[in-house]
């Protein structure tokens, strides 16, 4: 009896550690679970954003239920988050702004006009200061509340609208994503 209870306890603790521990990407441990809008989200997938053979940042997607269908994730009106951890000193405010603007253009098929004010707020309020290696940006979407951008745990801007969230998450998940390999990793492939 004692042996059975010990085995059950060992199984439960191992399962809990696997669910709540971390996912290692490029030597960095990311949480397997984050809390958004009073709901716990599980990591869907994570990878490294590369450009010209340089590792720039780690990006992880968190969702209520795992999915590997990019358009379903983009369109979903449910709690979800993207966590970005800067791993290179080459990432600056200027090149982040350029990448965000280019990403929105690709995600919307060059139809950003209706979102331009929100894109400018995201850039001017969310990425206003210097960006340093080790900074963590959280893009958290909550239905009815909008998308908040946090830098190192501090909320810098909240932008309303499912249309904005779709375009923002599309930067990494659309047909022409920022990094095709990163997209695959975020989708858990």
Explain how this protein is built.
A 7-stranded antiparallel β-sheet has the order 3-4-5-6-7-8-9. It has a two-stranded antiparallel sheet with strand order 1-2. It is 37% helix and 32% strand. Mean pLDDT is 90; it is low at 1-19. α3 crosses α5. It contains 6 helices and 9 strands.
Can you tell me the CATH topology?
A: Chalcone isomerase
Strand content: 25-35%
Question: Outline, from the CA principal axes?
Answer: globular
Structural classification: alpha+beta
User: Nearest-angstrom radius of gyration?
Assistant: 18 Å
**Could you tell me how far the N terminus lies from the C terminus, measured between alpha carbons in angstroms?**
42 Å
Describe what is shown at a glance.
By secondary structure, this protein is of the alpha+beta class. The protein is built from six helices and nine strands. A hairpin with a 2-residue loop joins strand 8 and strand 9 (154-159).
Keywords, separated by commas or semicolons:
about 190 residues; Chalcone isomerase; two-stranded antiparallel ribbon; 6 helices; 9 strands; about 30% strand; disordered N terminus; signal; Chalcone_isomerase_sf; Chalcone_isomerase
Give the secondary structure arrangement, pairings included.
Blueprint: H1 2-20, E1 22-25, E2 28-31, E3 33-36, E4 39-51, E5 54-63, H2 70-75, E6 80-86, H3 93-107, H4 116-126, E7 136-142, E8 146-151, E9 154-159, H5 162-173, H6 180-186
Antiparallel strand pairs: 1-2, 3-4, 4-5, 5-6, 6-7, 7-8, 8-9
Helix pairs in contact: 3-5
